[in-house]
Amino acid sequence: MIADSSGKADLERALLERLEAQKMAGIVLAANGRGEDYAEFLRNFKTPIVMFDQKVEGAERDFVGSDNPAHHRHLDGASTAARS
User: Fold this and answer.
1) Whole-angstrom distance, CA of residue 19 vs CA of residue 13
2) Range of the domain at 29
3) Contact 62, 51 (CB under 8 A)
4) Is residue 1 in a domain?
5) How far is CA 46 from CA 41, 72, 79, in A?
6) To 5 degrees, how large is the angle CA 68–CA 16–CA 28?
7) Which of 9, 15, 68, 76 could hold 33 in an S-S bridge, CB 3.0 to 4.6 Å?
């Protein structure tokens, strides 16, 4: 199931509550919510959540992201080597 909050934190929270009520096995979340109140909501959420792209500090949930500066250094090095 895919849900879209259109970047609205209050809608995201309502969608997460709806998904939890439907007994989802887990949720992959690109979070829009911020702040300690939202982090506490996620900490107390019973359904497992893996966040990606946007980390909510203090949520204490698994997170998958990229190290963009390291990625750019790698690409810059590859393009320099290709020009040599």
Assistant:
1) 10
2) 9-83
3) yes
4) no
5) 10, 37, 46
6) 35
7) 9
CB of 14 closer than 8 Å to CB of 38: no
Beta-carbon contacts of 31 under 8 Å, excluding residues fewer than 6 positions away, are: 12, 38, 42, 51, 54, 55, 56, 59
Burial label, 24 (beta-carbon count in 10 A; 0-12, 13-18, 19+):
middle
Q: Is residue 2 part of a domain?
A: no
**What six digits make up the tokens of 15?**
């969608």
pLDDT score, position 16 = 94
Check residue 66 and give its pLDDT: 76
User: If you compute the radius of gyration of the chain from its CA atoms, what whole number of angstroms results?
Assistant: 17
**Total domains in the fold of the chain:** 1
| 51 in any annotated domain | yes
- DSSP letter for 25, please: S
Residue 15 lies in a domain: yes
Low-confidence ranges of the chain (pLDDT < 50): 81-82, 84
